[in-house]
Amino acid sequence: MTVVLGLAWTVVMIVQLSLLSSIVNAVFMKRQGLSQQVFPLSLLLIMLVVRSALTWLREVSAQESALRAKVALRNYLFAHLMALGPALRSNARTGELLATLSDGIERLDAYISQYLPQTVLSVCIPLLIFIYLLPIDWISALLLMVTAPIIVLMMYMIGTYTEKRTQKQWRALTHMSAHFLDSIQGLPTLKIFWHSEEANKRISRISQRFEHTTMKVLRIAFISGLVLEFMTALAIALIAVALGIRLLNHSIPFADAFLILLLVPEFYRPLRDLGAHRHAAIEGKAAAQRISELLHTTVPTAKTTFTITEHQNKPREQLTLELTNISYTYPQSSRPALHGVTLRMEANTCTALIGSSGSGKSTLVHLLLRFMDSDGGCIAINGIPISELPVEMWREYVALVPQRPYLFDTTIMDNIRLGRPSASAQEVMHAAEQAGASEFIDQLPDGYNTIVGERGSRLSAGQIQRLAIARAFLKDAPLLILDEPTSSLDPISEVLIQQAIARLMQQRTVLVIAHRYNTIKQAKQIAVLAHGELMECGTPQQLLARNGQYARLVQGNETKEAYA
Ligand SMILES: Nc1ncnc2c1ncn2[C@@H]1O[C@H](COP(=O)(O)OP(=O)(O)OP(=O)(O)O)[C@@H](O)[C@H]1O
């Protein structure tokens, strides 16, 4: 649309300049009175109005299409990041992603709304003018065609040089954003360890690097603008001199020469505009490259062959979970995080998963949540491999209470409702009651409408935990995955949470990453992971009698502290 409007604008401009040259010729050369030029003058006026309207329409259309493209891209990119889940964390910093999602997509604006249509117009408009001029004066047309490629070649060379520097500038900007976010999030740690001064110095170093690369890019942009202006001025002067000589020799009529002089700057204008947009466009391209990299990161799951009719016995209430020979290696890793894990969890029983740090507990949970698919083996519920169920459908059957629940900066009501977005206020309140959270919520001045702050900063760790349990109550899923908090809570919170969890566990198949001895010994079975392998599995009594790793963990002094 922008290109079509641009071409229409060019046709109107050619008509307008032809009218102008014929009026000037009639009035000044043929000495005709203005009264004889009423019709061409009115036409000229109409063309002026039409040209202004087309300019306005072109701008609006370019902005609108850029806006639509940006909204679509932002939604698409966000959906892709959601699908990538934890797989993304290993190769991207949050601040960098934030810069790409906000600033990066904004930078695409100039690229989409200005540069892309301008590249088409900078070929079509000069070509139109050339075709129009050729029958009028082939010498000027030829001169235009010789000078234009030289200007294009210069632009290309400068552009290639600038592009590398702009890529560097974009990387410096995203690095700076990532560092700012990291420092702001770690502000209390920096303060406590008296490292805020060192952090200031680092930020200032990174800012200076960004300033340095930006100045370099701006310098090149300024010089390239200057060279382009000079080259086009030179080309126009060359054609003007050639016209002047021929006018003196009377080898070209004044009207034609005047029209050519008016049209020549218009011939070069699209190229100059292209040069002017090029700097912004290169910035947009640098951002586009990172966006494209993100979009090309393969989503590590979502292979689904399921259709509802295929599995009429799809899981409902009772879930028996069976892991057979599960293995998983992270893309950037050479060592498997899980290897040959086989585990059966009977319906409505609790399995405690234990193991030292790095043994593969979270990886197992991520596989169960289908943030990624296992490299080998099978996870099945009631005999159906979960890889055959649509991901979203499978997640309907799972509730998660993580070790550090994430609360969004919105009301308590909305945060709990995340468990089931369609739930009524009464259902949310009932879930909060079951989670032992209603008492503290009722004491807050705004009750369920209290805004919790970023990550729940206005609530205590115990209160956050209870809201996460309320979410799980509201979801009421048959499979519950629970990662016990390791940080110690005050005794009252501890008791309340233990009671709420005990209620939540009833009538569900539960997998708990357990850190407390109390939880472990109450589980129906215990699975011990070490270095990604399932070392032993059985009831607490069986494992104690076996006198293996679990028995050593319980009896050993270190572990008594850990599980106290
Ligand atoms: N995104 C990742 N990319 C590469 N390797 C990873 C990634 N996440 C985890 N790992 C590796 O996989 C192994 C298992 O990690 P996992 O997080 O599952 O252990 P964990 O038992 O949950 O540890 P913790 O109790 O400390 O949370 C570790 O060696 C870890 O370094």
Automatic annotation (TrEMBL):
InterPro entries found in the cross-reference section: AAA+_ATPase (IPR003593), ABC1_TM_dom (IPR011527), ABC1_TM_sf (IPR036640), ABC_transporter-like_ATP-bd (IPR003439), ABC_transporter-like_CS (IPR017871), ABC_transptr_CydD (IPR014216), P-loop_NTPase (IPR027417), Type_1_exporter (IPR039421)
ATP-binding among keywords: yes
Major location category of this protein: membrane
Positions of the ABC transmembrane type-1 domain: 1-283
Cellular localisation: Cell membrane
Transmembrane spans: 6-26, 115-133, 139-158, 217-245
Residue ranges annotated for the ABC transporter domain, each copy included: 321-556
SMART domains the record matches: AAA (SM00382)
Pfam families associated with the record: ABC_membrane, ABC_tran
Keywords, in A-Z order: ATP-binding, Membrane, Nucleotide-binding, Transmembrane, Transmembrane helix
Membrane topology of the entry: Multi-pass membrane protein
Keyword presence, Electron transport: no
PANTHER family named in the record: ATP-BINDING CASSETTE SUB-FAMILY B (PTHR24221), COMPONENT LINKED WITH THE ASSEMBLY OF CYTOCHROME' TRANSPORT TRANSMEMBRANE ATP-BINDING PROTEIN ABC TRANSPORTER CYDD-RELATED (PTHR24221:SF590)
Protein name listed in UniProt: Thiol reductant ABC exporter subunit CydD
Organism annotation: Dictyobacter halimunensis
